[in-house]
């Protein structure tokens, strides 16, 4: 079990607030094992922020705290200068769309799985969201198309197809804040290319937090946050971190070596 206090439900009003995000001296622990230490971070409304670091660095935990899957042990997280703990679950849910590498689909039609992003959406709006999420190609191969049952946990679809259905749900939701938690981490190159095209659609004019698996995909982020052993090691643009941050230089070298290996491996197989 998590060593964390229960989440509170409160009543609130978020009308006319901005979507600037502040992490103020945030710490968090699993079973008394501290995994985030005194994180201070500002994320401007409408910006793209990437969280990077080796496995266990705390980047996914930081994102889950923003979505309020868990509560902070100390410090605070604010959206529009309002503490998450003072928001109702409904209000917070309306502000954030969360897409992770493991998305659960319900055993209902793909249309209804997408519609969970916004229950009052019309069929046409669901179709449009599916198209923007690059679902048309695989839906056309299914006998019942978007009316196909997903199966328990979405077992009728491949991992990449489940991801695109989940992204269609996020597109339909149209929340002002998007959290992408290593959404393409385990995809093959073809599915990753399609997913990236879909992600480009969903993040337009949003405040976006990306937990990056491939560093080359986030070099144009407004800011890149380097986490190491639960500490925020550095924050800056790609070039600033290349110039000043040893941890980022190491991660960038590893990313380049991995990319070069894939190219060499693929050429060797031809």
UniProtKB/TrEMBL annotation:
Assigned keywords, A-Z: ATP-binding, Cell membrane, Membrane, Nucleotide-binding, Transmembrane, Transmembrane helix, Transport
One example GO MF annotation: ATPase-coupled lipid transmembrane transporter activity
Domain ABC transporter, residue spans: 21-254
Protein name: ATP-binding cassette domain-containing protein
Membrane-protein topology: Multi-pass membrane protein
GO CC list: plasma membrane
Cell location: Cell membrane
Gene3D superfamilies per record: P-loop containing nucleotide triphosphate hydrolases
One of the Pfam families matching this protein, by short name: ABC_tran
SUPFAM superfamilies reported in the protein's UniProt record: P-loop containing nucleoside triphosphate hydrolases
Primary localisation category: membrane
